[in-house]
Amino acid sequence: MTQATGTRIVLGQNNYGKSDVRLVKVNRDNERHEMSEVRVDVALSGDFDAAHVEGNNTDLLSTDTMRNTVYALSKDRFKGEIEEFGLALIDHFLEAGPKVTGVRIDFTEHLWERIKVDGREHDHSFVRAAGVRTATVEGDESGARRVKAGIDDVVVLKTTQSGWEGYLHEQFTTLPETDDRILSTVVTAEWEYNTTSASFGDTWSGVKEQILSTFTDHYSPSMQGTLYLMGKAVLERFPEIQRIHFSFPNRHHLLYNLERFGIENDKEVFHADAEPYGLIEGWVERES
Question: Fewer CB atoms inside 10 A, N or C side of the chain?
Answer without folding.
Answer: N
